[in-house]
Amino acid sequence: MTPIQANTYSIYFNEDCFSYLENQLKKESYSKIFILVDENTNENCLPYILSNLATEVEIEIIEIEVGEESKNIYTCLDLWHTMIDFGGDRKSIVLNIGGGVITDLGGFVASTFKRGIDFINIPTTLLAMVDASIGGKNGVDLGNLKNQIGVISEPKSVLILTKFLETLPANEMRSGLAEMLKHGLIYDKKYWDKLKNLNNLSTNDLDTLIKESIEIKNTIVSQDLTENGIRKALNFGHTLGHAIESYFLESEDKKTLLHGEAIAVGMILESHLSLSLNLISKEEYAEIKYIITDIFEKIEFTENDIKNILDLLIFDKKNEFGKVQFALLNKIGEIKINQTVDNSLILLAFEDYSHI
Q1: Out of 83, 131, 138, 141, which could bridge 179 as a Cys pair, Cβ 3.0 to 4.6 Å?
Q2: Which residue segments constitute the domains of the chain, with CATH numbers given?
Q3: Which parts of the chain register pLDDT below 50?
Q4: In terms of Cα–Cα distance, which of 74, 46, 73 is closest to 60?
Q5: List of residues 6+ apart from 284 with CB closer than 8 A
């Protein structure tokens, strides 16, 4: 596959990844390679990387615990101290091998260590391949509030090895699919239409769809790296989705949701908001709801759950002057940013969702 050119880096696929990596490591004469993994990628992905990594540079492997619970400033402190202890300097590089937690966290750690060192993202989940590793957003959660602390700093490259998808359970694959569906809904109806027929797709089709999803995100990000305008389109489904994800993460009696599971609910709810504001038709809303609920299990919400989720909306990063900002659909394949919505319409959206 032809590499995709982003603002300051390239995204490589499969057979091109290791030749690029070998050349990059030789060209830059790095002093040390730090490889950040979690327990799963250490076991399932790192051996393949190491067996194909031709370099004489000293390698240090750092493992963190799996899960969103590790995506915090305390993990960063541990990593910074570890890198110091192992002799990390301005000519070190970090390879982030993992899902969105690893690429978000590892990118932030690298971007702030010694005021910024190089890093390369090697995403191992579908979600990280099509979303988290692309676009230069790096950061950590503040308590249970998603992505409140971070920087925008682009990697040296992103290496997409779709072989790693073979290690994923079905729920992780679905989680990544949520972001792919979002890309079609906000930008390209033809791409959305392709994703509607997943049962008829082969493995080769999936590789092509992953590349197309990355191209959509990259096209948007390239126009607006710092999210002052069109990049806000990528937040469709995320205003309510992030609040739902945060609430389920902090609630002891709730099962923690994967990012894509929460975003899938968010996309249905925010599609209903789009319907309430007469931005999309009833037919479009029905289609969106049908496709997403066919893939993702319904989540049950009590009145108290909904109240607490609404309270969390005020912490959304897109908010300006205390007002919650939504990116809503204008039609399938087109977005409208900076939309404000009354809570009464959000409650109607939850009411409709409860009858799925």
Answers
A1: 131
A2: 4-167 (3.40.50.1970), 170-354 (1.20.1090.10)
A3: none
A4: 46
A5: 271, 275, 329, 331, 332
Q: What pLDDT digit, counting tens, does each position of 152-191 carry?
A: 999 999 999 999 999 899 999 999 999 999 999 999 999 9
Name the average pLDDT for the chain: 95
- State both tokens at 292: 């997403």
Question: pLDDT per residue over 206-225, tens digit each?
Answer: 999 999 999 999 999 999 99
DSSP bridge partners of 151: 138
pLDDT tens profile 223-269: 999 999 999 999 999 999 999 999 999 998 999 999 999 999 999 99
- Label each residue of the chain as H, E or C: CCCEECCCCEEEEHHHHHHHHHHHHHHHCCCEEEEEEEHHHHHHCHHHHHHCCCCCCCEEEEEECCCHHHCCHHHHHHHHHHHHHCCCCCCEEEEEEECHHHHHHHHHHHHHHHHCCEEEEEECCHHHHHHHCCCCEEEEEECCEEEEEEEECCCCEEEECHHHHHHCCHHHHHHHHHHHHHHHHHHCHHHHHHHCCHHHCCHHHHHHHHHHHHHHHHHHHHHCCCCCCHHHHHHCCHHHHHHHHHHHHHCCCCCCCCHHHHHHHHHHHHHHHHHHCCCCCHHHHHHHHHHHHHHCCCCCCCHHHHHHHHHHHHHCCCCECCECCEEEEEECCEEEEEECCCHHHHHHHHHHHHCC
pLDDT value of position 204: 75
CA distance 270 to 244: 13
Output the six-digit token pair for 111.
Answer: 């971007």
Share of the chain above pLDDT 70, in %: 97
